[in-house]
Amino acid sequence: MATENSETFLSSIIKKSQLIQSGSPKIYQLKVLTKITEGLKTVTVGTKKVNRLNKTILLLGETETGKSALIDVLVNYAMGVKWEDEVWFKIVEEEMTRQSESQTSDVIMYQIFGFEGKTLPFSLTLVDTPGYGDNRDDINDDIIAERLLDWFTSDGGVHEVHAVGLVLKASVNRLSDRLGYVFDSVASLFGANMEENIFALLTHSDGGPPENALTALADAQIKYAKDEQGEPVYFVFNNCQSAQRTGRYTRNLKNAWEDSEDEMKQFMEVLNVTEAQTLRTTVEVINQRNQLKDCIINIQDKLKFIELKKTQIDQEKALYIKCKEKMKANENYEEDVDERYKDKEPIEGGRCGFLGLYYRGATSCLRCEETCHYKCRMNSTSPDGPRCKMFDGRGHCTVCTNKCERKHHVKEKWIYVPKTRKVRKTYEDIKKKYKEGVKGMEKHSSTLERMQQEMDKLLEQEHEELEKSFQHITTLESIALNIDSIFTFKHLDFLIERMQDEKFAEEVRKLKEMKQRMEGKNLRKALNYAATAGGDKKKQK
């Protein structure tokens, strides 16, 4: 039977909670305070005490692994709930519990205060992330990384972590492409300092050794904590604490409860002596990933313009020579040529996310006529222009050609797209164009020489963008826990193809070595999953 003190304490909690299911155990929904600030959701139970120790656990995992149930287990353990109490408390809302495993929509921080001294000498902060590998369009791993970055950099967010819990079903028996993608996405978010703080939390256990799950982790080459003997550190839980205790299954349920309680006790003992890791490196990893992604997109957009510009220059060079030869015969020689211009194309966007707190659109520079950030999700604006991660501390864009100020930018549901149209030009048109083009130069060169200078300038701009991409990759390799990431791997072929100039010989050599090393780790299968999942999303639209 439960002790008198335990009954008194739990009675005070029950009075503040809502009964959602009768029976044994009775299941109660805890009274919580939910707060949403700048799109970040915090769920708090209890009152924070000043100068009390707090431990933060970040939970990561694939969908349908039981993260929500594990959060409830952590809360009940902190409260000191025993089998004999015949009660169970939920902090994750019932509706959210039914949906979260298959379609969790955002990062949520649970703060568990006021139970210090029951079983733990500290309070708990649990950060629950969306399920990795979700195939819905509005959830993808890039967005998860962005939401984590918001948490790690906001005033009320998380700035240090004591443990990262990799939640995985104990029964998983093979390393699917999807699972490989999930593991890689998780590991690639963190810095090299995080390895000893990552623990495997294995759910839905049948009570036996979780050999299949441990093999899957080993096959995925996921990095997580090892003990002094080099053995992986993991903890095993079942998900039946709230199951009704009826008939012949009661004894089995009690044994399962006690097994999970023992595992949780061991996990908390490890957590008690685990030093916190600041998330400065993690923030830098996510920032570098975002910058690399945006840089690749920017290169691809610029390459379309560069190739188009090269064609236009070749056409105009041929037309200039042809017009010069025919000038005596026909002063008004005309010919149709391609002219480049930029058009605006609509994109999907508008209010999205939880309560419509975010605004999806594209940040574009009106002066340069360039789209600087295609899928910008930042919501608020400032008096002098839109907010966007592409602006530096001085309010200047780091992407557009002229690095313009914020006031020259807009955030709309359209992007700039290079196009061509046929125009009729004469020799005089070309002559006038190139005279204007060389105006102000101290020494005029011939028109054809000027054209070549323009082409050389375009190639120089391309090289600058390629160099920036390579630097982002090398930075990630030096600071990330998982240096062989799918996120990096998927860009290598593109960069190697574009960096064929002799000046990039050393960079290409390093990229090829990196690619060979990653292919040896069988990242291609996981990359194929990412590509297939992306294709499925487009079909669903």
Automatic annotation (TrEMBL):
Keywords: Coiled coil, GTP-binding, Nucleotide-binding. It comes from the Eukaryota. This is Septin-type G domain-containing protein. It comes from Takifugu flavidus. GO terms for molecular function: GTP binding. SUPFAM superfamilies: P-loop containing nucleoside triphosphate hydrolases (SSF52540). Belongs to the TRAFAC class TrmE-Era-EngA-EngB-Septin-like GTPase superfamily. Septin GTPase family. InterPro entries: G_SEPTIN_dom, P-loop_NTPase. PANTHER family: G DOMAIN-CONTAINING PROTEIN, IMMUNE-ASSOCIATED NUCLEOTIDE-BINDING PROTEIN 10-LIKE. Residues 441-468 form a coiled coil. Pfam families: Septin. Residues 55-138 form the Septin-type G domain. The lineage of its organism: Eukaryota, Metazoa, Chordata, Craniata, Vertebrata. Signal peptide: none annotated.
